[in-house]
Each structure stands twice: as structure tokens, then as C-alpha cells.
Amino acid sequence: MGIAVMFCYYANSSLVAISDLCYPWGITSADPRPLDEWLRRVRTRRRACMDLREYRASPSEQQRTADLLRMMPATGTRALDIGARDGHFSVLMAGRFDDVVALDLILPEISHPKVRCVQGDAAELPFDDGAFDLVFCTEVLEHIPPAVLPKVCREIERVASQRILIGVPYKQDLRAGRTTCRSCGKKNPPWGHVNAFDERRFAELFPSCRLAATSFVGASKTRTNWLSAALMDFAGNPYGTYSQEEGCIYCGQHLIPPPGRTFSQRLATRCATWSGKFSEMFATPHGNWIHLDLRKADAQR
Which segments does the entry list as coiled coil (predicted)? Predict the structure, then answer.
């Protein structure tokens, strides 16, 4: 079956690569690039990414980590960490569970006696039904192609026997902070996020689960409108999230700010900024991240 589908999917009958990847949670066997070359490029990009230790040490990330640990079971037998990356959460989970599986596209390198590293894809999890007391998935679902997202969520439901702990951005306006790729010219959502979430969306994605608890971390009132977004697109999206590690979701190239703007583009930028601020005046602040504790409907309460 190959290593299947996470950051590649079909659109208009052609293969579209979603980022070349510092969030490498899967590829499709239809990818025309040789696997070894693809993995080499991923590893190179990963080494060039922001120091994860610095990221983990930031106040906002420490707050988010503390909240996730608060919602996590104190003890358990088996847990799965989807998109384990550097193993930050896998190691923390090992302090609570007898056996932790750290899953990522690239085989994680985590040295811990209770952590087992697995190379795999969240759309085709290589585990039995109900194999894990807890399935942990944070900073993952917002990056998954919309066409694949329901399948990934079904797989998460399938392998969880009791609880699922999810963390994603909350009610994110995917128009705000867009970037324009200098290589292919296409518009990208901020941070490579291709999905936005709220409670209703999760009820649709996890129909066999009940929501046991919800928590919010941080605050945001970032909001734009169609006029501001269109003007920013015309201006080349100069204020987009170009510091992100994710590449273009269409061609995989690194995203860089526009080198310069014409007078009309500068004028459009100013008008877009005013229009966006007008929208934010009427926006209601909400949590920046949402954490959800989902329980399987047939699990003991």
C-alpha cells in the first residue's frame, strides 16, 4: 500500500504536494519523487527548522503543554502520540503510561525505555481496533488536507479504546496572515493550516465520541474580511506568516516575503490593513487553542 497520504493529495486530477515538510506526517505512494530523495529533503528541511527546544520553552507553549497534561489521564496502559516529531509529548506521556507509541512519517529518534517509535501514517494507522487507552494528537489536524481529514479522524476513533486528546487552533480565520509563494504564485493559508475548527466541526469528525471536557489556551481576536483579504492578495501578502517552517502547500518551496511592492500594492496594503482593523473592532476574543477530551461512546464513564 505504500506509506500513504498525509501531505499529498489529488486536486484537478493532478498530484499536489502539501509542504516539503517540517510537519512530515505521511506521503502517498503515488508521489513521483523517489522515496529516498524525498526523505533526504525532509530531513534537510527539519534541520533548518526553528530550534524546537526554544519553541517548547516559550511561555505560550509551556502554558499549552501544562493544559494538555492537566487533561491527560494520570495513569494508563498504552498511549499513541500521533505526529510525535521530537518526542516532547511522548516522553511526558511515558511518565503516565506503561507503553507509549510515538508515530511519525520519519521514524522518530526517541531514547526512552517506555517509548516505541513507529514510522507510519495517521490515515492508515498500523494498529488493531481499540489498541490504545489514549490517542494523543496535537498540532496535526489543522495541517491535514480537507479531503483526508475525515479518514484520519475515523482512524483515530478506531484505534482508541477509551479517550482521545486533541489540540488545534480554535476558530482560526485562514484568510488572515496568508502568504504568496514566490515560486508558483499561489496563495497559502497561514502556518500551512488548511482546516479551521470549532466544537461543531469536531462533533462531525468524531461522531462515535462524546465530548467530556474542553479547554482553551491563549486569546485571539484576529479576523479579516473578504475585501481586506483580496487587497492583501493583490499586494502579494507582504505581512503573511513567512517565518513559518512549512513550505508552500502546492509546490513545496520555501515561502519568502515579496522583495518589493509597487505604489498600487503599497496603497492596497494600507487599505487592507484599515479594513482588517475595522473587522477586528467587532470581533469577539476567543481562545487561541482548543483542547478536547473525547471519550468513546462505549467506554466506561
Answer: none
